[in-house]
Amino acid sequence: MHTRRAGATGLLVECADGAEVEAWRAELWRRREQGELAAAEIVPGARTVLLDGLTDPEQTAGLLAGWAPPPAAGTTAGPLVEIIVRYDGVDLAAVAEGWSVPVSEAVERISGTELRVAFCGFAPGFAYMTGLPWPVPRLATPRPRVPAGSVALAGEYAGIYPTASPGGWRLVGSTDAVLFDIERDPPALLAPGTRVRLVSE
């Protein structure tokens, strides 16, 4: 783990991989809840965790140097959210072919795996979920428009498009779940650390 300044009140924690990110995210959230860390924002990414709103980033960096978070596998499990999915995506057959399994088994693999939200980004409510051990290549050419509610895979991640937007992920299904609603508290259905199951309709 390494740290570096990010603006006047920020500190960026650089990690080796997603597992270390999750370990630090959980540890930093825990210490903030216990009053040991005063950070307005703790934002995980693919290989980083951003702390913002710090009064003294250098002092915080010194504190982090003395902390040793437990492995991600030892962190407290987040809440479980089950999302009903219609496995009707236009790329589902191609994903199954890439995995060398029938379409029915591809659906079982996805729906039977408990995923975890690693971080959020790209669009409000878009969660990058990990847990599928079978990587999926992105499309060579992104689609100009992916419908809202599309369930998709790319690389090591699964995700659901909260709104219609361009995208290069493989579409395996669709859902009516509302991923982001400004009138809801919190607005995003999925937050880092949340466990997710993409249950077949």
UniProtKB/TrEMBL annotation:
Gene3D superfamilies, per database record: 3.30.1360.40, Cyclophilin-like
Domain (Carboxyltransferase) ranges: 1-190
Transport recorded as keyword: no
InterPro entries, sorted: CT_C_D (IPR003833), Cyclophilin-like_dom_sf (IPR029000), PxpB (IPR010016)
Nucleotide-binding as UniProt keyword: yes
One of the record's GO molecular function terms: hydrolase activity
Keywords: ATP-binding, Hydrolase, Nucleotide-binding
A Pfam match: CT_C_D
Protein name listed in UniProt: Allophanate hydrolase
Organism listed in the record: Phytohabitans houttuyneae
Source taxonomy: Bacteria, Bacillati, Actinomycetota, Actinomycetes, Micromonosporales
